[in-house]
């Protein structure tokens, strides 16, 4: 459904200035019917990649085929085959959901009757029918995000592209949007989404490309990526400021594969065998006068994969 080779995008502030490389040459292969995620921090190049794949931004170099059409030579054909939900959404607070959906249908060449029927179908499918004729300014963030997805599906695209679909939503609204995205995929639509939420990529995606500084640094299923990180990790909560102080001493221990402060209070320690290393770590922290507030032993996560691939945790990127 998507094949890219060396897709690259540079920006220039002026003719004499050095170009800023937003995407440094990405190769992707997204299969039909797949839920594929681009995972990375803000500024990694995810949204720029998405804008290129939706024909909104021309690539500086490289090539791509999207939904069976050449991205550079068949832009109109690409647009007919895809649905796109931008990060900021695109609905008007003074309008109603039904009006927005009907207008979208008419833009794609439907008759008024066809557009009304499709709007009713999508409103019912996404659980929005009861509020269909209320102004969107009265809707919750989760409801408006589900409407954004409905707008992307009006013309029955083969491929739906979602840019940060749950950013800014509370946990309950995020769960609702996740359920709708799963339903879209189960109905046979290929989905490409960008996210900086580790749990979102783990929960939704069949495969994930981890992007950092405009390049792909990891690719595979969530389980495949996590299996590349050997051993366990111990997450320790300490008094404020302590992780930075004790990390060098912890790293120097034979049983330690790595130790990185996550924030001002949390230290993540990588070990071969967590059940054995916990007691060693507790003794060491006690000798350093670093009282443990809490301790959790975990299996590798996508955050561990990101840290291994880039040298820094996603939260600090």
Describe this structure in words.
By secondary structure, the protein is an alpha/beta fold. It has two domains: 2-226, 3-Layer(aba) Sandwich (Rossmann fold), CATH 3.40.50; 230-299, Alpha-Beta Plaits (2-Layer Sandwich). It is 36% helix and 26% strand. It contains eleven helices and 14 strands. The protein has helices at residues 46-53, 75-81, 97-107, 112-125, 141-153, 171-186, 198-204, 222-227, 242-251, 274-287, 302-310; strands spanning 2-11, 20-30, 35-39, 61-66, 69-70, 82-85, 159-163, 190-195, 207-212, 215-220, 232-237, 256-261, 266-271, 294-298. The strands form three sheets. The chain has a six-stranded mixed sheet with strand order 6-7-8-3-9-10, with helices on both faces. A hairpin with a 4-residue loop joins strand 12 (256-261) and strand 13. Helix 3 (97-107) crosses helix 4 and helix 5 (141-153) runs parallel beside helix 6. The model has no long low-confidence stretch (mean pLDDT 93).
Strand content: 25-35%
CATH superfamily of the largest domain: P-loop containing nucleotide triphosphate hydrolases
**Head-to-tail CA distance between termini:** 30 Å
The main sheet orders its strands as 6-7-8-3-9-10
The CATH topology of the largest domain comes to Rossmann fold
Our Rg estimate from Cα atoms comes to: 23 Å
Look at the structure and give the CATH class of the largest domain: Alpha Beta
* Main sheet characteristics: 6 strands, mixed
Compressed to H and E, one letter per element, the order equals: EEEHEEHEHHHEHEHEEHEHEEHEH
The helix content is 25-40%
Envelope shape: globular
Taking pLDDT < 50 over at least 5 consecutive residues as the criterion, the unreliable ranges are none
Look at the helices and sheets and give the structural class: alpha/beta
**Mean pLDDT value:** 93
Number of separate structural domains: 2
Count of helical regions = 11
Secondary structure: number of strands? 14
CATH architecture of the largest domain: 3-Layer(aba) Sandwich
């Amino acid at each position: 459904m998507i094949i890219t080779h060396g897709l690259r995008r540079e920006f220039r502030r002026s003719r004499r200035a050095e170009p800023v490389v937003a995407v440094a040459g990405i190769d992707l292969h997204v299969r039909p019917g797949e839920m594929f995620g681009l995972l990375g921090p803000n500024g990694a190049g995810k949204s720029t990649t998405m804008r290129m794949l939706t024909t909104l931004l021309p690539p500086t170099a490289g090539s791509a085929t999207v939904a069976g059409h050449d991205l550079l030579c068949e832009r109109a054909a690409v647009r007919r085959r895809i649905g796109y939900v931008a990060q900021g959404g695109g609905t008007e607070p003074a309008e109603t959901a039904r009006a927005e959906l009907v207008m979208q249908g008419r833009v794609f060449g439907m008759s008024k009757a066809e557009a009304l029927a499709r709007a009713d179908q999508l409103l019912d499918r996404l659980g929005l029918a009861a509020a269909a004729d209320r102004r969107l300014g009265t809707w919750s963030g989760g409801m408006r995000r589900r409407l954004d997805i409905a707008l992307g599906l009006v013309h029955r695209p083969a491929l739906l592209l979602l840019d940060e679909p749950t950013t800014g939503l509370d946990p309950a609204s995020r769960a609702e949007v996740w359920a709708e995205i799963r339903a879209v995929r189960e109905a046979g639509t290929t989905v490409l989404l960008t996210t900086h939420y580790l749990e979102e990529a783990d929960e939704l995606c069949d495969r994930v490309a981890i992007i950092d500084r405009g390049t792909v640094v990891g690719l595979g299923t969530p389980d495949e990526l996590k299996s590349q990180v050997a051993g366990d990790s111990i997450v320790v909560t300490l008094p404020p400021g302590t992780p930075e102080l004790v990390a060098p001493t912890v790293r120097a221990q034979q049983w330690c594969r790595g130790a990185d402060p996550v924030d001002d209070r949390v230290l993540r320690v990588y070990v071969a065998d967590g059940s054995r290393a916990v007691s060693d770590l507790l003794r060491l922290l006690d000798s350093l006068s670093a009282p443990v507030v809490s301790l959790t032993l975990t299996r590798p996560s996508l955050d561990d994969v990101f840290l291994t691939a880039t040298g820094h945790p996603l939260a600090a990127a």
